Amino acid sequence: MRVKRILTSLLLAVCLPPDANALDIHINVTDQHGVVVSGAVVSLVPVGDRHPVEHEMLAVMDQRGLAFIPQVIAVATGSRVEFPNSDALRHQVYSFSTPKRFELKLYSNQSTPSILFDKPGLVTLGCNIHDWMRGYIYVMDEPYFSVTDDTGDTSLDVPPGTYHLVARHPRQKSEASNVITVDDAQPGMFAITIHIYTKGDLPRQAEPAGGLAY
């Protein structure tokens, strides 16, 4: 059964200071049925030489059309995220996830103070007013990471070397990983398969008929 496309996510990437020898590589993520997976977070960690993440970020997850936009983002540990509300209706964003528990009281058409995400892991967001809204923030310790677009593709600039390539997704059954070598002799294109729970994919972030959401 064909998996429904996940909402297109904003491509975000974090890397170490620019390296003159960095190579541009492209990664494609598919599920166990061969269907492209958007909203997957891919990361690269040098084998035997784990570099610390040095670049913090200020990211934005908007609320627009009664949905979190983008639905999946990835940020470096120690980064801040803003949650503006572009809807005329009020939202109340919250998370009960272990890496970050917080709540933003009802607000509309305004920005809020940014939230610090200082522990790695997956943070799942909801809205107390609109139960079908779901957002996901991956807080990353890895030195290089990015989020796939609606074609399952993403790209990163990394120095030549051997890396653990890891793919994560909010509905995956288990973490997917490969070891890849990046050098001038390689075509710079890699693929990884991620096994996900296919029933329903990510919540569709729109109030379904009858008022039931999954």
Describe the protein.
By secondary structure, this protein is mainly beta. It folds into two domains: 1-51 and 144-202, Sandwich (Immunoglobulin-like); 54-141, Cupredoxins -  blue copper proteins (Immunoglobulin-like, Sandwich), CATH 2.60.40.420. The chain contains no helices and 17 strands. It has strands spanning 23-30, 41-46, 58-60, 62-63, 68-69, 72-76, 79-82, 93-97, 100-103, 115-117, 121-127, 134-140, 144-147, 153-158, 161-168, 176-182, 189-193. A five-stranded mixed sheet has the order 6-12-11-8-9, with no helix packed on it. 36% of the residues are buried. The model is unreliable at 1-18 and 208-214 (pLDDT under 50).
Key traits:
single chain; 214 residues; mainly beta; Immunoglobulin-like; four-stranded antiparallel beta sheet; 17 strands; 40% strand; disordered C terminus
Summarize the structure.
This protein has 214 residues and is mainly beta. Helix content is 0%, strand content 40%.
